[in-house]
C-alpha cells in the first residue's frame, strides 16, 4: 500500500482515499484545469511559472479555487514534503495539480458541505514516467502528422491547460496505428505545426532555433526554459509559422516537456532527421539544461529504468 498523501480540498488524505465525485463538473464536461511540475533534486522546478499558468487557466475557465497563488504554492511544497520520505533520497517527483469547478449545482443535495471547487495536489515518484521514457533519450522519437488537427484558439484556447483533451487522445491513437514510438504533432487550422499532445516542438535550420509562434499552442514551461537557455548561449531564435515542408528540411527536430525536458526526433513523417542521432544544437541545449537543473536527468532516467521492475513489484518502499 502506498504511503503517499494527497492534498484534497484543504486536507491531507491517503492517496487511495482521494476520490472525485461522479457528479463533478470535471467528469461531466472535462471542466478542469491542471498542471504538471517536476522536481530536480527533490525541489520543484519553476513551480511559480506552473502555478501562474494554472491560475491563467482557472481565470479562463471562471473557476475560483478558493486559494491564493501564494497559498497554493505553500500547500504544494507541504504536499511534496509529506511524501519525500516514502522514497529514497535520489527520487525525483512529479507534482500534479487538478482543479475543477466541483460538483454540478443540480446535484447540490448530495453534498451536505455545499458545492465548491475540487482541488487536489498529488506527488508521484518519477521512476515510472522516466524509467519508461529512458530508452527515448538514445533512440529518439518518430514525429508524424496525424489526421486530427488542433482546435482553433478562438474556439478553445490551448493556452489553458485543461482536461478537455479528446483531440490529443485521438492524435495519440492515430499515431499509434502507424507504429510504436510515433509521436503526433497536430496541425493548426491553417496547416501549420502546433504541438504534440504533451509537448512543444522545435526545429533547427542553419544554426537558427525555430518554434511555432505562441498562437495555437500551450505555452510550455520547458519551451520557455529552452528559449531562455538558447538566448544565454547566443543561439538565434525565431517564433514563426512552420509547416510540414520546414520540418522535412530541418537539420534537427526536438520536443520539450516537463518530465523529460527534451528529446530528439529521429524521423519526421518517415524521413530521417539529419543522420537520425541527436544534433549539435540539441546536445548543447540538453547539456546546458542538465547544468541548469543540477541533475543529469538522462543518467537518472536510465538508473530509474534499471530499478523500475522491482519498484513496480513492491509498489513502494516500506
Ligand atoms: C498540449 C501540451 N503542449 C505542451 C506541453 C509542454 O508543457 P510543459 O513544458 O510546461 O510541460 C504540454 C505539457 O503537458 C501539453 O499538455
Description:
The protein folds into 2 domains: 5-125, D-amino Acid Aminotransferase, Chain A, domain 1; 133-300, D-amino Acid Aminotransferase, subunit A, domain 2 (D-amino Acid Aminotransferase, Chain A, domain 2), CATH 3.20.10.10. 41% of the residues are buried. The protein has 10 helices and 16 strands. With 318 residues, the protein is α+β, with helices and mostly antiparallel strands. Helix 4 (127-133) packs across helix 10 (297-314). It is globular, with a radius of gyration of 20 Å. The strands form 3 sheets. Strands 7, 8, 11, 12, 13, 14, 15 and 16 form an 8-stranded mixed sheet that branches. The model has no long low-confidence stretch (mean pLDDT 96). The chain is 34% helix and 25% strand. Pyridoxal-5'-phosphate binds at residues 36, 195, 197-200, 218, 220-223, 256-258. Pyridoxal-5'-phosphate is lined by residues 36, 195, 197-200, 218, 220-223, 256-258.
- Written as H for each helix and E for each strand, in order along the chain, the element string is EEHEEHHEEHHEHEEEEEHEHEEEHH
What is the β-strand count?
Answer: 16
What is the distance, rounded to the nearest whole angstrom, between the alpha carbons of the first and last residues?
9 Å
Structural class: alpha+beta
The set of bound ligands, ions and cofactors reads: pyridoxal-5'-phosphate
How many H/I helices? 10
